[in-house]
């Protein structure tokens, strides 16, 4: 099965991608993993990407797409995959469609994790990170009454990208870039929305239920 997973920051894409890919026995492919593999492996594409990443710039579409194409061509992705974080926009989606068409395959389904804006802000702005062990706690979900890590005694702090104003900006960027992408896949009749609120296990059940009619 060939799946794309989309959703706003804080929707739980990384967690759900891992569970779904494991259930289907297909590789979970994220742009972050691809970037790291190419950079650490010293590939030509990795060297190109590193130049942009070191400057804090976005890696251009053509480099990202070339990396994704190479990864999808690997043996473990031949019979299926789950893409997390790609495509991010309509041009990338159109290119992905062309790549798959060259191999005489197509996407089976695009799962959109749906969660309202207030919940995203609550999830992300409530996160606190330990400055020693790196564990992430949540001021609501973990019932923390202090700023001390229960695991190692380290100090808990709020990362800059978890601050409410930054979260709101990330949501605006997501809506600007990804709303047209969601519509693109809706027009392709392969988009299915999944309610991403509630316990992780419940969200996973909803996602797997949506996939069940496609499983062979």
TrEMBL record:
<keyword id="KW-0479">Metal-binding</keyword>
<dbReference type="Pfam" id="PF00406">
    <property type="entry name" value="ADK"/>
</dbReference>
<keyword id="KW-0862">Zinc</keyword>
<dbReference type="Pfam" id="PF05191">
    <property type="entry name" value="ADK_lid"/>
</dbReference>
<protein>
    <recommendedName>
        <fullName>Adenylate kinase</fullName>
        <ecNumber>2.7.4.3</ecNumber>
    </recommendedName>
</protein>
<dbReference type="InterPro" id="IPR033690">
    <property type="entry name" value="Adenylat_kinase_CS"/>
</dbReference>
<dbReference type="InterPro" id="IPR006259">
    <property type="entry name" value="Adenyl_kin_sub"/>
</dbReference>
<feature type="binding site">
    <location>
        <position position="31"/>
    </location>
    <ligand>
        <name>AMP</name>
    </ligand>
</feature>
<dbReference type="InterPro" id="IPR027417">
    <property type="entry name" value="P-loop_NTPase"/>
</dbReference>
<comment type="function">
    <text>Catalyzes the reversible transfer of the terminal phosphate group between ATP and AMP. Plays an important role in cellular energy homeostasis and in adenine nucleotide metabolism.</text>
</comment>
<feature type="binding site">
    <location>
        <position position="127"/>
    </location>
    <ligand>
        <name>ATP</name>
    </ligand>
</feature>
<feature type="binding site">
    <location>
        <position position="36"/>
    </location>
    <ligand>
        <name>AMP</name>
    </ligand>
</feature>
<feature type="binding site">
    <location>
        <position position="152"/>
    </location>
    <ligand>
        <name>Zn(2+)</name>
    </ligand>
</feature>
<keyword id="KW-0067">ATP-binding</keyword>
<keyword id="KW-0545">Nucleotide biosynthesis</keyword>
<feature type="binding site">
    <location>
        <begin position="85"/>
        <end position="88"/>
    </location>
    <ligand>
        <name>AMP</name>
    </ligand>
</feature>
<comment type="pathway">
    <text>Purine metabolism; AMP biosynthesis via salvage pathway; AMP from ADP: step 1/1.</text>
</comment>
<keyword id="KW-0418">Kinase</keyword>
<keyword id="KW-0808">Transferase</keyword>
<keyword id="KW-0547">Nucleotide-binding</keyword>
<keyword id="KW-0963">Cytoplasm</keyword>
<feature type="domain" description="Adenylate kinase active site lid">
    <location>
        <begin position="127"/>
        <end position="161"/>
    </location>
</feature>
<dbReference type="InterPro" id="IPR000850">
    <property type="entry name" value="Adenylat/UMP-CMP_kin"/>
</dbReference>
<comment type="subunit">
    <text>Monomer.</text>
</comment>
<dbReference type="InterPro" id="IPR007862">
    <property type="entry name" value="Adenylate_kinase_lid-dom"/>
</dbReference>
<feature type="binding site">
    <location>
        <position position="92"/>
    </location>
    <ligand>
        <name>AMP</name>
    </ligand>
</feature>
<comment type="similarity">
    <text>Belongs to the adenylate kinase family.</text>
</comment>
<feature type="binding site">
    <location>
        <position position="130"/>
    </location>
    <ligand>
        <name>Zn(2+)</name>
    </ligand>
</feature>
<feature type="binding site">
    <location>
        <position position="149"/>
    </location>
    <ligand>
        <name>Zn(2+)</name>
    </ligand>
</feature>
<feature type="binding site">
    <location>
        <position position="170"/>
    </location>
    <ligand>
        <name>AMP</name>
    </ligand>
</feature>
<feature type="binding site">
    <location>
        <begin position="10"/>
        <end position="15"/>
    </location>
    <ligand>
        <name>ATP</name>
    </ligand>
</feature>
<feature type="binding site">
    <location>
        <position position="133"/>
    </location>
    <ligand>
        <name>Zn(2+)</name>
    </ligand>
</feature>
<feature type="binding site">
    <location>
        <position position="198"/>
    </location>
    <ligand>
        <name>ATP</name>
    </ligand>
</feature>
<dbReference type="GO" id="GO:0004017">
    <property type="term" value="F:AMP kinase activity"/>
</dbReference>
<feature type="binding site">
    <location>
        <begin position="57"/>
        <end position="59"/>
    </location>
    <ligand>
        <name>AMP</name>
    </ligand>
</feature>
<feature type="binding site">
    <location>
        <position position="159"/>
    </location>
    <ligand>
        <name>AMP</name>
    </ligand>
</feature>
<feature type="region of interest" description="NMP">
    <location>
        <begin position="30"/>
        <end position="59"/>
    </location>
</feature>
